[in-house]
Amino acid sequence: MKLAQTSIPDVVIIEPTIFEDERGWFMESFNEDSFHAELRKLGLPPPRPFVQDNHSCSGKGVLRGLHYQLPPHAQAKLVRVVRGSVYDVAVDIREGSPTFGKWVGVILSAANRKMLWIPEGFAHGFLALEDDTHFLYKTTDYYAKECEAAIRWDDKQIAVQWPTDGQFILNSKDQAAPGFLESLHFPGTSEHHVRRAEGAHVGSVTK
């Protein structure tokens, strides 16, 4: 596998090694030893063990996010698409981080087979770019309803540059999510970081 850091260095794009012949192709979708070794080469810590796998199916225009879980059940995610394509977004909400309040966006698809590694301390969301898009992700903690939280997808402070081909489809919970500044209630957030967030809307798009 090949790992490449994004403009937020802790968020990493993963390109698996593909073996192809006349029968089709094969790849390792996950290998813990290789994943940890490649993270260490980048100076990044390996994650806690993955404990839950999730699989969603979305029609074109469905937007899910921006979601995260509060401590003690914060989740890191390893995400990929096995059918269709998405525009996948991670937002840094870690106090003390030099990229606090910034975002990165990556196109993940069944065709490019890329994955995205999103550590704990990030809000995450995606926009389905095709009908019948299947999105899979591993998490380092279990879903905990009492710890779930969200930031509004179109928050003006974060200013994610979502693709604009048609209208977005969101559920009522995501439509009612608070803005970034209103969401800064996770433990330990200081007034300094709230002030930093007021000016943090720099993003990065990776194709």
Automatic annotation (TrEMBL):
| Pathway, per record | Carbohydrate biosynthesis; dTDP-L-rhamnose biosynthesis
Kindly give the InterPro entries that the UniProt entry links to this protein: RmlC-like (IPR000888), RmlC-like_jellyroll (IPR014710), RmlC_Cupin_sf (IPR011051)
Q: Where is the secretion signal located?
A: none
- Keywords on record: Isomerase
Q: Describe the reaction catalysed, as an equation.
A: dTDP-4-dehydro-6-deoxy-alpha-D-glucose = dTDP-4-dehydro-beta-L-rhamnose
Q: Which residues cross the membrane?
A: none
Q: Which domain of life is it from?
A: Bacteria
Q: Which CDD domains match?
A: cupin_RmlC
Which Pfam families would you find in this protein's record?
A: dTDP_sugar_isom (PF00908)
Name the Enzyme Commission number(s) assigned to this protein: 5.1.3.13
SUPFAM superfamilies recorded for this chain?
A: RmlC-like cupins (SSF51182)
The family database entries (NCBIfam families) matched by this protein are listed as:
rmlC
| Family according to the record | Belongs to the dTDP-4-dehydrorhamnose 3,5-epimerase family.
User: What does the protein in this record do?
Assistant: Catalyzes the epimerization of the C3' and C5'positions of dTDP-6-deoxy-D-xylo-4-hexulose, forming dTDP-6-deoxy-L-lyxo-4-hexulose.
User: Self-association or partners: how does it assemble?
Assistant: Homodimer.
Name of this protein:
dTDP-4-dehydrorhamnose 3,5-epimerase
Question: The organism's lineage?
Answer: Bacteria, Pseudomonadati, Pseudomonadota, Betaproteobacteria, Rhodocyclales
